[in-house]
Design goal:
heterodimer, A: 423 residues, alpha+beta, Alpha-Beta Plaits, DNA polymerase, domain 1, Dna Ligase, domain 1, 3 domains, 4-stranded antiparallel beta sheet, 14 strands, 40% helix, 21% strand, B: 112 residues, SH3 type barrels, 5-stranded antiparallel beta sheet, 3 helices, 5 strands, 33% helix, 27% strand, elongated
Chain lengths: 423, 112
Amino acid sequence: MRSPKRIVMLGDCQSFYASVEKAEHPEYKDRPLVVAGDPERRSGIVLAACPLAKEKGITTAERLGEAMAKCPDLVVIKPRMQRYIDVSMLITDIYKRYTDLVEPYSIDEQFLDVTGSMHLYADTPEELAQMIQTHVQAATGVYTRFGIAETKILAKTACDNYAKKNPSGIYTLSKDMLAETLWKLPVNKMFMAGSRMTRHFNVMGLPTIGSVAQTPLAKLKQMMRRKFGKNSDIQAEMYWRIANGIDDSPVRPGTHQVDPKSVGHMMTLPRDYSKLEEIKVVLLELTELVCQRCRGLGFMGHVVTVGCMGADFDRPTGFSRQLKMEDPSNITNQVYQWACRLLEKYWDGLPIRRVGVSLSQLSPDTEYQISLFDTGRERSMALERVTDALKNKYGNSIVIRAVSKTDAGQALDRSAKIGGHYK
Amino acid sequence: MTTRKKLEGNGLWESSRMMLPEHKETIIRRQLEEGRRERPILDPQEMELIESALAESFHEHHQVTVRLFDEYGNTELVGIVVLIHTFRREIKLSITEEEWHWIKIDDIVSAR
């Protein structure tokens, strides 16, 4: 029989990267294991720790050195991001055998709406969740936890706060249970409440999720307006709905297909760059990546944004500025010229540790303005069609610019990575 | 995203998710592949209908709407058949005075 209420699940993979590695290295089955970024490149932090490593006090995002001090016989594995994406897709495929409504939310979390299909497999949502859990474990070696509820927000909340601590890894949170469960939790456990927001809620006299939920919306808006100004109404309503478990969002499988608003790339450098020529090298490399992705998507951008940040994140230096180009473009050299103007105008000469480039105000690249004076455009477009095709086939390192071979160049290193970690 | 969109549709989740661009591209490519279809096998009667529609367009200079098979989604063209190459199994479909297409008869899944 069909259930009158929606049944939404959030499936979360335990210590995802570490679990994938453990499944593929059975010899490490009973040893504490972490996946950690490259120690030489400042990204030497723990990305994922297996339950055995966590027992020794190792936490995600701590420095590898500290982790090894806590646990000398630790197995350290370099990340293989492409493999994790593949396994994540494999898990999506498994979920899709039980419902066509599957929405990946991150590499290790996915929403499932089983309202219409549960009765085909099981009598209760918990029974179905357990079936899927066993299925995923057998196929990939990854242990999954499921939060089950009527809405996405409650499913997520159920997973984060209860399912992960439950021996079965499954927890159902129904709306009438909120007062005894969720509302008793401190406000920092609320979805979307970061440390800054938690501080503000505490100052406002709202220490628990329940206190936010039970404040009338109009009053909460008023309280937040006093702190953040007039534009905080939406924020107030968002937190109020989250606290009350109100969320009518659908589980939308095609949600990733929307046209992008902007295309950008950002990179943390391995050391401080303080010469203009050096920064220009990475600026060109990033512009190339951005334009390459735009061309692949069939877009041109009209506005180019350049951002630079200093090394000391506690004392922020740098800038983020944008400029409208004469015409929309996705040609690397054209966009690069405009990006250079921004850099030369706004860079204060202090050392830089992070650089970003993005293109926005996108339009389809099927039509473009022919310029009377710029006769090189057709040639550049033809050249980039060829280099893009080569890169798509053989990887980004197959053709690089000569400057990328200099000391400052990052293109080769970056082409071996996904999300800043090794493929 | 501080606009109302956060409270509408799937906004809360679309604005807060953490997706690697490479992961997203894989998902989109997979969805495209899932929509991929096999070439249909036409019923002899349907083939006769197509033939007569093309012949009529050719002889009478009537406009005909042909639907062409594509793995990812059929396309439709409206025009007049101006040439038929029986040996190459191709037709020339004139869309406007300047625009025309050579079409393989085997690609046509319907013609009206």
